[in-house]
Amino acid sequence: MPMPEQFHDIAKRVNNWGRWGPADEIGTLNLITDEVVREAVRTVRSGRRVPLALPLRQDGVQTGAIPGRVNPLHTMTSVNWQLFGPDTVATSDDVVTMGLQAATHWDGFGHVSHSGRLYNGRPASTVTAHQGAEFGGTEKITSLVSRGVLLDVARAHGVERLAEGHAVTPEDLDTAEELAGTRVHCGDIVVVRTGQIQRYLGGDRQGYAYPSPGLSIRTPEWFHARDVAAVADDTLTFEVFPPEIDGLWLPVHALHLVEMGMPQGQNWNLEELSAACAEDGRYAFLLSATPEPFVGGVGSPVAPVAIR
Amino acid sequence: MPMPEQFHDIAKRVNNWGRWGPADEIGTLNLITDEVVREAVRTVRSGRRVPLALPLRQDGVQTGAIPGRVNPLHTMTSVNWQLFGPDTVATSDDVVTMGLQAATHWDGFGHVSHSGRLYNGRPASTVTAHQGAEFGGTEKITSLVSRGVLLDVARAHGVERLAEGHAVTPEDLDTAEELAGTRVHCGDIVVVRTGQIQRYLGGDRQGYAYPSPGLSIRTPEWFHARDVAAVADDTLTFEVFPPEIDGLWLPVHALHLVEMGMPQGQNWNLEELSAACAEDGRYAFLLSATPEPFVGGVGSPVAPVAIR
Amino acid sequence: MPMPEQFHDIAKRVNNWGRWGPADEIGTLNLITDEVVREAVRTVRSGRRVPLALPLRQDGVQTGAIPGRVNPLHTMTSVNWQLFGPDTVATSDDVVTMGLQAATHWDGFGHVSHSGRLYNGRPASTVTAHQGAEFGGTEKITSLVSRGVLLDVARAHGVERLAEGHAVTPEDLDTAEELAGTRVHCGDIVVVRTGQIQRYLGGDRQGYAYPSPGLSIRTPEWFHARDVAAVADDTLTFEVFPPEIDGLWLPVHALHLVEMGMPQGQNWNLEELSAACAEDGRYAFLLSATPEPFVGGVGSPVAPVAIR
Amino acid sequence: MPMPEQFHDIAKRVNNWGRWGPADEIGTLNLITDEVVREAVRTVRSGRRVPLALPLRQDGVQTGAIPGRVNPLHTMTSVNWQLFGPDTVATSDDVVTMGLQAATHWDGFGHVSHSGRLYNGRPASTVTAHQGAEFGGTEKITSLVSRGVLLDVARAHGVERLAEGHAVTPEDLDTAEELAGTRVHCGDIVVVRTGQIQRYLGGDRQGYAYPSPGLSIRTPEWFHARDVAAVADDTLTFEVFPPEIDGLWLPVHALHLVEMGMPQGQNWNLEELSAACAEDGRYAFLLSATPEPFVGGVGSPVAPVAIR
What we know:
Order of helices and strands of chain A: HHEEEEEEEEHEHEHHEHEHEHEEE
InterPro entries (chains A, B, C, D): KFase/CYL (IPR007325), KFase_sf (IPR037175)
Strand content of chain A: 15-25%
Organism (chains A, B, C, D): Streptomyces silvisoli
Protein name (chains A, B, C, D): Cyclase family protein
Mean pLDDT of chain A: 97
Largest sheet of chain A: 9 strands, mixed
Oligomer: homotetramer
C-alpha cells in the first residue's frame, strides 16, 4: 500500500529538502547555532547532571521482535592478563556486539526511506550493506549539544504514564509546554515523556515494546513550526504503535527522518529528569547528547546528559 | 618482575583508597561537584562545539597488536527493508562488533589491576569473563561533564608533535599550563596534547601506535596534587611507550586506575581543539564526555565534545 | 555444596586421566583408530546421507537463559557490491556472531571443570578469557569420524518422545541397543534420541529447553564400559534437567568432560535419522562430525552427517 | 566494463540453469547420488583421516584487504563460572564473530552475481541485508560428502609450490590427474593443490593473499566436462590473481557460482593430504566437507576431512 494522500500533504508542509543546500547531511541540526548553544548554557543553574541513558546490558529493551537489533553482548577478551610477566600489571579488555539502535539511541537519516528517497532527496539506494549510509551517516553528527526542553506529557496529564495506545498530539505538547513554563524554539531538542519506559524498568519488556504510546502523525508539523533540532522520547517505537491510521506504518519516522531531516531519539530514560524538573519547575536545560560517530551508521547509541 | 620500590613510593603518595568511602566506585569523579560544573559552564563564550572523537570505522587505530581489541566492524541487518509491504516505508538497521577501547575511549577501573588489586582495594578477581567488572564498571559513570583544560604540550614546546619517545613530565605540564593561562584545579578534566594522533590521521597506523610519546610516571603526582577528575590524551598508549623504566610496564595506568581511581582517556583527537584554543587563547572549556554505560565495562567508547 | 560422595564414587570408576599419557588433550577420541574407521565405513550400504544439524539462524534454540550463549546473528558486509566497477561481477559477503554452543555442537573439555580440575588433571585456571582453553581446545579435534550408533530410546519405548523429566538410564540404553540390533563397542559415537527436539521444531523453544529429558548420572558408567568415543543427543541440556539429585548440577557433564575426557554433543536433530534407521532396521552408520577448529574453543558448532 | 565476449562464450558452454529444474538451489551437488557416495566409500583403505581446515584464530589468513571479512574473534562469556554455588561444577562459554569466508570455507551461490543474475537465473536482488541469500543459502547444502580427488598440480610439476602468477590450466589438471592415477568423474569433489598456503603457514600472510596462483578461466570447462560436484583449492582467491584478462575480475567465480551452480572452496590446507597421497599413490578418498548451515549464508566455514 502506497503512502496515503494525508501523509503526502503533511510531508509537503514539513519538507526541508534543499533548505540547507543540496549537499547537506545534518538537516535540522543546522539550527543549533553557536547562539543557541550560548543560550542553552545559560539555563544551567545548579550544575546537577541527570543521565538519560539506559545501562547497556544483554538484558536490555530488545525482545527479538526486530530482526538483528540485538541487545548488547559484552564479552571479555582478557581478564587480569599478565602480558608482561608475573607480578606485573594485569589488564582486562572487552568487546561488544550490539544493534546500534538497541538501547538509548538516535536514529540517523539512513534508518528510514520512503518512495525510494532519503532526506534531501538522496536515493534510498545510497544505503548499502557495504558501507551503510553513504549520506547522513551518524559520523556526520560530530556534536549534538543544545537547549533541551522536557515536555512531560504524562505529568501534564497528571498520570504516571500515558495509556498504551495514547497518541501524543500537538495539543498534548502544548499542555506540556505550558507546564514547562518555557516556549520551545528554534534549535531546541525536545524531550517528550510518556512514562512508558517504566514498564521496562519494572521488568515488563514485552509491555514496554508494544503496544506503546508515542507521537502522533500530527506532531511533526508542531516540531516543524517551532523549528526544533531534534526530538527524543522514552519509548521503543517513538511514535504511537500500532499506528493511528490503518496501514500507514511509521509515518512519524518518515516525516522526521526523510522529509524534515530531523534526528529522533528512542529509549531515553526520563524518569529522574522528570522528577528533577518537577521539583524546581525548570524544564529547560543544557542537553549534551552526541551520538557515537559510526561511519555510515543509520543509528547510534548515545549517553545523553541533562545539565541543569 | 614485581613492581619496583619507586612505583610503590609514588603509589603511596597518590593513593585514594577509602577517600570516598569503602563502597566508592567512581574515584576522582567524585571531585566533579555541582559547583565545579557551574564554573565549567561559565567558561563557555562562543558556543562553538569542538568534537574530540575519531570516527568509528573498520580502518581505525587498532593494528592487531592488542589481541581482541578489534576495530569497529559495522554491518547491516537490513537495508531499505519493506517490512510492511511494497510502497511503504523502508527501514535499514545496523549492528557493530568492536573493542570497547578500540577508538576514542575512557579506561574504566576494571581495565588494570596490580598486586591482585583494583581501585579501592577490590580484589582483581572481581573482574570476570561472566560479568566483566563487578566494581567500577563503566555504567557507574553516569555522567562525565566538567571543566576541561587543554594542556597543549606540543604547542608549548613549539613543535607540531612531540618526539616518539618523549615522556611528558610535570615540567611539561607546567609549561603547557602557563600557555593555557589558567590554573588546573580540583575536578577539572585535563586533556594533554602530544600531537601524536597526526600520525594516524596521516595514514601511519603503526607509527601512531608505537613508539609513542605519552605521560611520564612522574605525572600522576602532578594530577593528584591538583586533584583533577580525569585525564585524556591523543595517543594509543596514553603513557610513554616503551616505558621509562626497564621492566616497569604501564605504571601510569596502574597509578591512575588502581591507586588514584582516576579514569583516563585515549585516542582523543585534539587537533581541531588545539587550533581553536590557540586562536583565541582560551584553553578552558565545558567538556562533555560521558562514556557509553556498558554494564561491567572495563572501558567504553566516548564522543567527547568541548563546548567553548 | 561440594560434589557428593556418590559423584566421586562414579568419578573414580570412569576416570581416564593419564590413560593416554599426561599430555593427552583428546581423551576418548583416541579410541577412534584407523581400524575403527575402516569398520565404520563398512556400515555404509545405500550411500544416503542424513544431516543432523539444526539450521543456524537467529531464531535458534537459545532462549536467553544462558547468559552470552547467543543465537547466530548473521549480517551482511556487502550485497552485490561492484568493487570492480559497473557491469562487472558483484560480490556479497557475510559475518556471524554466535555462541559456539548455541546450536548443534560439541562440548570441548574446557567447557566444564569441577574441584578446580579439567580433563587429565589440568588446572581449571588454564581456561582464560585471553586464550580460551589452553588445553583441550576444540582445534585439537582435527577430525571426528567414526561408526555412529543410534540408540533410539524414544522409539524403543514406543513413544514419540520421552516425558519431560525422563532420565535416560543404562537400562534404557540396553533396550535401545537391542532395537538397534548392534552392540555398541570401542570407538563408537553413540547418538541418543529422546525426541525432545520435536518441541523446538514445533515452535516451543521454552518447552524444548526446560524441563528436559536427558542422560542419567548412571549412564557415564555404561559409556565407559563400552569405551565409546563420544555421545550426542537431541536436547539442550544433554542430561536430564532439573537434575536427578538435589543440588548436584550437571553431573553428567562433569563425568564426561572432566573425568572421562569424552566430548558430548547437544541439539542434534535426530528425527530424520530415526525414521531412516527404523525403515531398514540399520542403526549403525558412518558418522562424520568434525567440529569447527576454534583455537581455544570450549565448544564448537558441527554439521554432523550420518552416511548410511 | 561489462563482461567480455570471451566470458559469455564460456558461460554459454558451462551453463547449468534449469538442468535440475527451475527451483533448484544446490546445482552440481545434485550430481552426488547415493551411488557416487557408495563408490566414494569404497576408496577408503587405511581408515586414516586427514584434516584440511585451518585452525580458526584471530591471526588467520585475512589481511583486512577484503572489507568486513574479519578473522575469527573468539571471546569468553564465562570462565569457570560457578552458577550453582561454590564447590559445584564450573562452566566456561565462548562466542565468536567472524567472516563466514574468513578461513577454510565454501562459497555459496549468493556470494557472486553478474549481469544481475545468480545461479539458475535468480535475480541478484534476492540477496538482501535482511535475510542474506533467499535462494541457494548455505543451509540448503545439508550434506557435502563425496569422492574427493586430489589434483596435486604443484607436485605434478615437481615444485614445492606454483609460482605467484601461475594460472592453473586444463593441461595442468590433466597432468595432475595422470599423477593421481584415477579419472575424475561425475559427482567428484576436485581438490586442487598449488602449494600457495605454505606462504601463510610460513608466516607470510600478505604473500599468501596476493599475488596468487589459482585456477585459470579455462578450467571451468574442464570441470563442466567431467561434471564434478565441487572444487576447492589452497589459495585465498581461488582463481589466479591478478586475473589473466585485464579488467575481467573473478571470472572463475562467476562461471562456477553463477553459470554452473557449483560450490567452490578456498583456504584449504592440502599439505598433509599431499604427503599422504604421494606416499601410497592413492589420490582418491572419501571427502566429508559439509558446511555449517547458516540460513541465508553466502559462504560458510567447513572443517573438511579426507578419509583414506
